[in-house]
Amino acid sequence: MAKTSSTTKTMQPVSPRSEPVQTRSIKRTQQILEVTSELLETVGLNDLNTAIIAKEVGISVGSLYHYFPNKHAILYAMGKTWLDSIEEVLKEIQEWDLEAMSLPVFIDQVVDTNLRTYRQQRAVLRLVQAMFSVPELRELDERHDDMVISQMAKVFKRIGLNKHIRERERIARHYLEVTHSSYLVVVNQNDRRASRTLADLKLMLGCLLEHHLNTPE
């Protein structure tokens, strides 16, 4: 049996110390998440630590540890909250009358609806980068991709893309990579450039989906 390398980094726990139930604890937890979002945007991931977070919240580091054991646990909570908002959007899309929608209307709505969740999450680019690069958060990145791909594969079938599930999942992954990266660019652009980028995104999606809608399986 191979020995575990002594250089292997131990994964930090990402579960909160306890689930807040009292109003004061809930507010404090939310404050910690909001302050961390602001700091993630201003100081970046590498310089972010619990001492800075505690100072900005106005509590001691010891008090902060009553809520979260480390900075990765705070980032995990932020990422999970953002994933919950993505899940809500996907549920909302499933409730649309997809079968009756024209392709341009569908693309307009699906892009605009998803973009709202990216705009609402402060420092979303840095958060997503953390979800991809920090081992403790990688599960969130994988969960995000799997969720979007599986749900959009169902959506594509309802708009008339009658292909095998594996092929729809392949197209959904392509859709994910194109939209996800574009949203992360748009949220950091001024209004004029963002409008042009979104127009390009919608054009690309239109070409992709129209091609597969008109191509037999």
TrEMBL record:
DNA-binding region location: 49-68
Domain HTH tetR-type: 26-86
Presence of keyword DNA-binding: yes
Record's signal peptide: none
Ranges where the record places region Disordered: 1-23
Keyword DNA-binding: yes
Pfam family, one: TetR_N
Keywords: DNA-binding, Transcription, Transcription regulation
InterPro entries linked to this entry: Homeodomain-like_sf, HTH-type_TetR-like_transc_reg, HTH_TetR, TetR_C_15
Recorded superkingdom: Bacteria
Protein name per Swiss-Prot or TrEMBL: TetR/AcrR family transcriptional regulator
Native species: Rhodanobacter aciditrophus
